[in-house]
Automatic annotation (TrEMBL):
The keyword Glycoprotein does not apply. It comes from Graphocephala atropunctata. It is a multi-pass membrane protein. Homotetramer. GO terms for molecular function: channel activity. The keyword Transmembrane helix applies. This is Aquaporin. InterPro entries: Aquaporin-like, Aquaporin_transptr, MIP. It comes from the Eukaryota. SUPFAM superfamilies: Aquaporin-like (SSF81338). The chain crosses the membrane at residues 37-58, 70-93, 113-134. It is found in: Membrane.
């Protein structure tokens, strides 16, 4: 354990010297020690993700995709809920409301590792809670596949996977 820790320390020191990296900033200990701010950010991400899933998937529950009007309505619903969440929580947490967005910001260095981990956890909890609310609110007869993504009529599984 001591050898591993000294190796890790020397590697981080080398990286910070050669690439001008601030390892404390990359890990993000300061981000999570300010408890009032981090809890506000986490609550905003949880509520934002919950509402995105609730409103977005709720808009396509029990819908038969027989016309283009339905697809446009669903797309506009997702667009409006994202725009609303950006206005409501963007100034608090950055309004990632999606683990993929958080991962992208982590890779590009716009968010620290610890903050990204906490964001992803609350985003997953928010998505699960939003899905549970949609399931509880939707009558049994209207559930069907409950917004499950499925392949088109003439699309093979491998084609769907590749696309």
């Amino acid at each position: 354990s001591i050898t591993y820790n000294s190796y890790l320390y020397s590697m981080m020191t080398w990286l910070s010297e050669h690439f001008n990296l601030d390892t404390k900033k990359i890990i993000g200990i300061d981000d999570i020690t300010d408890t009032k701010t981090i809890w506000r950010c986490l609550a905003a991400e949880l509520i934002g993700t919950l509402l995105l899933v609730l409103v977005g998937t709720g808009s396509c529950t029990g819908v038969q995709l027989t016309s283009g009007d339905v697809v446009v309505r669903i797309a506009l619903t997702f667009g409006f809920i994202i725009a609303t969440m950006v206005q409501c929580i963007g100034h608090v947490s950055g309004c990632h409301i999606n683990p993929a967005v958080t991962c992208g910001l982590l890779v590009t260095g716009h968010i620290s590792i610890l903050k990204a981990v906490f964001y992803i956890i609350v985003q997953c909890v928010g998505a699960i809670a939003g899905s549970a609310i949609v399931k509880v609110m939707t009558p049994e007869a209207a559930r069907g596949n409950l917004c499950m993504t499925s392949l088109g009529a003439n699309v093979e599984p491998m084609q769907g996977f590749l696309v």
